[in-house]
Design brief:
heterodimer; A: 384 residues; 18 helices; globular; B: four-stranded antiparallel sheet
Chain lengths: 384, 177
């Protein structure tokens, strides 16, 4: 354990401020260059970055349940990821205020002429939407506070804590599945309120896991610059993270394909509209890009043990998967607002800007912390 | 090369010492040798200078062939041999063919992986000269063995024995074929 005492601490407050400033500037430029296209771009960016925040909480719960050295080495990064949840709650406000422009069911004019929307109004109405969003964040923030308490005790040098947090983590994981399912239905699926997909929540859950694993692998590459970290982040553990990234890439493909094959086989008019919209006016190309570059290429690269064990290759691929996840969110949200495929400067600047804010939040809360949490599973088995 | 001898086996009580012995043997020019341990020892393969397995490439090719075969099976049935219109869908309804294509790729690669793994390991092997060495029974318990085989061009009964004894083993024994 005494080796842990000598691990360096983060000195990242200055960088955090830099990222915050960059984030605000990028979002502002995105807004000024195309104010009409700002809200949709903001929404798909938000759906991506909330995945990294909620996914960090989910991964901490998972690690508390399963244990494993791979989780111990990224645990500090995960605490910082989950600590961005208050920031993400604030960043949700533009979506609340822009609700009428984003969601068809929230606009009184659309509601007045649409029987189906009227029938669904018991669930899809602005008041209930706000209330549910508050409940999601209350649960996510509350669970984060509980988990961070255990982290505080680890930092204080307590051992053998995992059994104590396991029970809560099991319950919270169960609640997380519900909250993420409902949140994805509310925030993303209800953009097309006539359409539904029963696998949508599961797919959102998997996407969050994939985004978080990819973000943590990229983060680990930077973490390895600190002296002493490589004693804990061994090749074996990097291999484990690589395997999990591979697993989640396949799971994402499985969920996406399952949704496609069910809707394509049934070919029912209330279901196939989603894919018809995304196969016309250039959108089909985005679907093909996702199949080839979100699944095909990463699948082939991650098949090899060689690339799963090397953080240089793995982190590049993780970065690539993050870009592809962003494309997937773009593909889900933007066709609702623009029937023809087009990418504006705002669509690029806003996700980058929100990402800078998120990374700024991560760096801010990492400041002054030791680079690794002295988690129960941190010291590799067989290490002397 | 000595007649009537399979090789010389040295016994160690520690995996690190075995790795060191394998490394030194390789440095001394020995190539035809093998190590026997009760559990997988990390770094031993590299110390012995063994090539990484080619199994993964064989399995990959098997997966590709299984997938292509699985797809072709469905394509040939649904679009060539007995074309039938299902719900107005194209005869070559590729989304519907993906699950079976995937399953066939997994099935064929799993079977090939198991069979080829046994074949490349030379299994099943009911007899091995080392079985005659009494102390070798502990290779499955708590001892680590390095055997330099007589087929090695540098093998010399006396010189190799002296070399192995210089590695401080618990014992060195001659293995009969």
């Amino acid at each position: 354990m005494h080796e842990l005492e000598h691990l360096p601490t983060f000195q990242s407050r200055g960088k955090a401020i830099g990222f915050f400033v960059a984030g605000v500037v990028l979002c502002a430029v995105g807004f000024l260059t195309n104010s009409a296209g700002f809200l949709p771009a903001y929404l798909f960016s938000y759906l991506f970055w909330i995945g990294a925040a909620v996914g960090s909480l989910g991964l901490m719960l998972l690690i508390n349940l399963t244990g494993g050295g791979w989780g111990a080495v990224i645990y500090r990064l995960l605490t910082a990821g989950a600590k961005t949840l208050p920031l993400m709650a604030v960043l949700f406000l533009p979506i609340l205020f822009g609700m009428r422009d984003l969601y068809e069911w929230a606009s009184p004019e659309a509601l007045a002429h649409d029987e189906l929307l009227q029938a669904k109004a018991g669930y899809l109405n602005p008041t209930f939407f706000v209330l549910r969003t508050v409940v999601y964040f209350a649960f996510w923030l509350g669970a984060t506070v509980v988990v961070l308490k255990a982290v505080g005790r680890w930092d204080a040098g307590e051992r053998g804590l995992r059994p104590a947090v396991r029970g809560f983590s099991g319950f919270a994981m169960w609640m997380l599945a519900y909250s993420v399912t409902f949140a994805s239905v509310d925030w993303s699926m209800s953009l097309e309120p006539h359409w539904y997909s029963t696998i949508f929540g599961m797919k959102a859950f998997v996407s969050m896991g994939l985004i978080t694993f990819a973000a943590m692998i990229v983060g680990l590459r930077f973490l390895l610059r600190f002296p002493g970290v490589d004693r804990f982040a061994t090749e074996e553990r990097i291999h484990d993270l690589g395997k999990l990234l591979f697993g989640f890439t396949n799971l994402w493909a499985y969920m996406s394909f399952a949704q496609l094959i069910i809707i394509w086989s049934g070919n029912l008019p209330e279901l196939n509209i989603w894919y018809i919209k995304r196969s016309l006016n250039g959108w089909n190309a985005v679907g093909v890009i996702l199949i080839v570059f979100h699944f095909g290429l990463p699948f082939l690269i991650l098949l090899s043990r060689y690339s799963k064990q090397r953080i240089e290759i793995l982190s590049l691929l993780a970065l690539w998967l993050l870009v592809m996840q962003l494309v997937d969110q773009f593909y889900q949200v933007i066709p609702v607002f623009r029937p023809g495929l087009s990418v504006t400067l705002t669509d690029v600047l806003v996700p980058l800007g929100m990402g800078a804010l998120w990374i700024g939040g991560v760096l801010w809360s990492l400041h002054g912390r030791r680079v690794l949490v002295p988690h129960d599973d941190l010291v590799p088995r067989g290490a002397h | 090369m000595a007649e009537g001898v399979y090789g010389l086996v040295a016994e160690f009580d520690d995996p690190d010492r075995l790795i060191e012995a394998a490394r030194r043997a390789r440095e001394s020019g020995y190539r035809r040798m093998d190590a026997y341990t009760p559990f997988p020892v990390h770094g031993l393969l590299e110390a012995l200078g063994k090539r990484p397995t080619r199994l993964q490439w064989i399995v990959f090719i098997a997966a590709v062939l299984g997938g292509v075969g699985g797809y072709y099976l469905q394509y040939w049935i649904a679009a060539v041999d007995y074309p039938i219109n299902v719900g107005g869908k194209p005869l070559n309804s590729w989304p519907n063919f993906i699950p079976v294509t995937f399953e066939m790729a997994v099935l064929v690669s799993a079977i090939v992986a198991a069979v080829v793994m046994f074949a490349l390991n030379g299994l099943p092997q009911p007899y091995h000269p080392l079985f005659k060495v009494e102390r070798f029974q502990r290779a499955s318990q708590d001892r680590f063995f390095l055997c330099i085989e007589a087929e090695d061009p540098r093998f010399d009964l006396e010189e190799t024995r002296r070399f192995l004894e210089s590695l401080n083993p618990l014992s060195v024994e001659v293995v009969e074929p």
